DNA sequence: GACACTAATGTAAACGTTTACACTTCGGAA
DNA sequence: TTCCGAAGTGTAAACGTTTACATTAGTGTC
């Protein structure tokens, strides 16, 4: 009585093809290493039975998962889409797979995701932001999983980052408004407690004000999740102030759009009455009326660089090297000098 | 000479704790099944060494990957974000993990992704759209992987779909424009060759025109990728026609936004000169001026239902049952009757 | 004709869990 | 006292590949 192998395994195929299991494995992984006619016979069989080898066993046996994990804080902001697609393309070309995970701005959820990634022994992790429990970094190191921080730069040099400089970029944006003559500048940004990018942008804003001897008014900063309707509400509040701002720096384009439409709805002209500057340079900022001035973030470039670094780390053991990426202020139609009456009013208060 | 186990394995921990490997495994998987003091001792050890078990071995040995795959055609459109997050929440509650993959509107890439998912023996797959090589469905069935189609309904009842009805929704939207008095209605939609949702919406548009005896003008339909700038260009072309449309149905909110701003830029008033209706009901449609009329898609509800169905399929073997989800037209400020002069002109042509 | 070398294939150990089953201990019921 | 069941733990097979090493056959060289 012939022992019948379980269908859908290499063993089973090997028996059908009259070769050993090793030959099947080789046919699948390194076709050149088997004789052409053997190969053909086996591939025909594989085709006919629609055989898909068990990747779990393969990954486990070869000790290579071929997967890079990417953790983004949200997928609703399309700026991460460009970033993700760049990474995906690079990895695919290198024969690696991308596992996209959404941490939803939750440290708790991110922790679980990182743990899962370690469990599945991914060969690299791309993180967003640096601010997290140091234990997580230790864990990644403990399991020799290369990682890289993106979208912000850690003050600790031991944490490799491939990113632009949030502080510098926000400094530039705020300074631009100051140089246009604005003295009453609002900031709408993300929730700094859970978002180090937002925190750095806020810090930059404060420091610029201080440098130009403009007093900091807590009422002019609004920290909110990146949802357009929330930003719209915040803008309404801001513009209903006794002395509304003449400029709003939004640390995110989504928020800037909320601010733009809300100002217009409240009959403020942009940029004549209020200037607005965003952050990210989403495609929509070019289409909106007036087109939005913003800070261009080279998301694709950052993605490419991060992916390349991890490919080298995973395949050649080259440690990830930090790298800074340049941003650029894009002046479009939503920024200008403050209105004259405000300038007059502020010099001769009523 | 004591045989030393490889660190970072259950064996190694077992030796350290002076128990068997089975006890370690049980402590990790079903803590209740081991004595409290044993458990404590082991957990302390696990904690101290930051031990993370090898999920590949676990998945492989237990024959359960605990993963559901989700394939979306793009991640730039935030409508998929809501969908994805709903799925993620449901799966997490059920102890399953979500693997998000982006097929980038490429059948080729999608095929590779599906293959990878089968290789890793995921316990379910959520697909977007039904239109793909039938071999892929066969493959999923062959490997007994439950799947469900979302965002559109297959004409073949053998393919389970949890979705709204694109044809019905687009019919409603087009009909609404007709009933407002429009006769010259443009359609901006996705590329129907690679997007069955776009194809169904186009079909609905044509059928409504036919039903109301409005001649179909090829020049009034624009098929384009869902990028706002491309849609803006298409709108420019449309509105520069000898006889520009008095209404534009955009089968996607992104495109509708491009159309809206472009019309305004060209000095057409919305809705006085042109009506615009979108599709998806993104949050931004409520904020824009005028707020955009659109078709509300219950993305979260669809995600919940799809996730629940796959959870039941994976865990209890319940076959996925098709289900239709309702959409709703949301009338906001971007739709109205056609302008009077057009109505006059059309009744007494020059 | 012996030898070295290569190409093609086979053998079998290893990867690190899970889990069915066996075993021991202990407390209580008869 | 014996017996039974439950609780706790151990043993070892199984999961389906990959791959180092062994084996065989074939080819060309001296």
Structure report:
Two copies of one chain form a homodimer. The first copy, chain A, has helices at residues 10-17, 21-29, 36-48, 55-62, 79-93, 107-119, 134-142, 166-179, 196-211, 228-239, 253-265, 299-316, 340-347, and strands at 67-72, 97-102, 124-128, 147-150, 161-164, 185-189, 221-223, 247-250, 275-277, 294-296, 323-325, 328-330. The first copy, chain A, is α/β, with parallel strands linked by helices. Chain A has three domains: 10-61, lambda repressor-like DNA-binding domains (434 Repressor (Amino-terminal Domain), Orthogonal Bundle), CATH 1.10.260.40; 66-165 and 298-326, Response regulator (Rossmann fold, 3-Layer(aba) Sandwich), CATH 3.40.50.2300; 166-296 and 331-343, 3-Layer(aba) Sandwich (Rossmann fold). In chain A, the strands form three sheets. Chain A has a six-stranded parallel β-sheet, sandwiched between helices. In chain A, strand 1 (67-72), helix 5 and strand 2 (97-102) form a beta-alpha-beta unit. The N and C termini of chain A lie far apart (105 Å). Residues 343-350 of chain A have low confidence and may be disordered. At the A-B interface, helix 4, helix 5, strand 2, helix 6 and helix 7 of A face helix 4, helix 5, strand 2, helix 6 and helix 7 of B.
């Amino acid at each position: 009585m012939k022992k019948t192998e379980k269908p859908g395994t290499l063993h089973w195929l090997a028996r059908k093809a009259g070769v050993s299991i090793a030959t099947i494995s080789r046919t699948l992984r390194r076709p050149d290493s088997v004789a052409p006619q053997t190969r053909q016979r086996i591939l025909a069989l594989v085709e006919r039975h629609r055989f898909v080898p068990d990747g779990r066993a393969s990954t486990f046996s070869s000790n290579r998962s071929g997967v890079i994990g990417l953790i983004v804080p949200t997928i609703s902001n399309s700026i991460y889409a460009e970033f993700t697609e760049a990474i995906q393309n690079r990895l695919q070309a290198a024969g690696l797979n991308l596992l996209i995970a959404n941490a939803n701005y939750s440290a708790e959820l991110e922790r679980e995701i990182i743990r899962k990634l370690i469990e599945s022994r991914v060969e690299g992790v791309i993180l967003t932001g640096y601010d997290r429990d140091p234990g997580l970094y230790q864990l990644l190191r403990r399991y020799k999983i290369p990682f890289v921080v993106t979208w912000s730069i850690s003050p600790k040099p031991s944490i490799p980052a491939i990113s632009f400089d949030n502080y510098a970029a926000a400094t530039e944006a705020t300074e631009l408004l100051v140089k246009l003559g604005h003295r009453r500048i609002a900031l709408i940004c993300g929730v700094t407690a859970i978002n180090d990018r937002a925190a750095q942008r806020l810090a930059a804003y404060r420091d610029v004000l201080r440098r130009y001897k403009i007093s900091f008014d807590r009422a002019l900063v609004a920290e909110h999740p990146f949802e357009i309707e929330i930003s719209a509400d915040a803008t309404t509040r801001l513009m209903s102030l006794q002395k509304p701002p003449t400029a709003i720096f939004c640390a995110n384009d989504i928020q800037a759009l909320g601010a733009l439409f809300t100002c217009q709805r409240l009959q403020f002209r942009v940029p004549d009455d209020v200037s607005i500057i965003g952050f990210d340079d989403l495609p929509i900022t070019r289409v909106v009326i007036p087109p939005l001035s913003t800070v261009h973030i080279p998301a694709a470039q950052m993605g490419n660089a991060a992916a390349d670094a991890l490919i080298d780390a995973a395949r050649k053991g080259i440690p990830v090297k930090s790298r800074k990426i340049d941003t650029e202020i894009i002046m479009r139609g939503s920024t200008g000098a403050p209105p004259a009456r405000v300038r007059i009013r502020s010099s001769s208060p009523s």
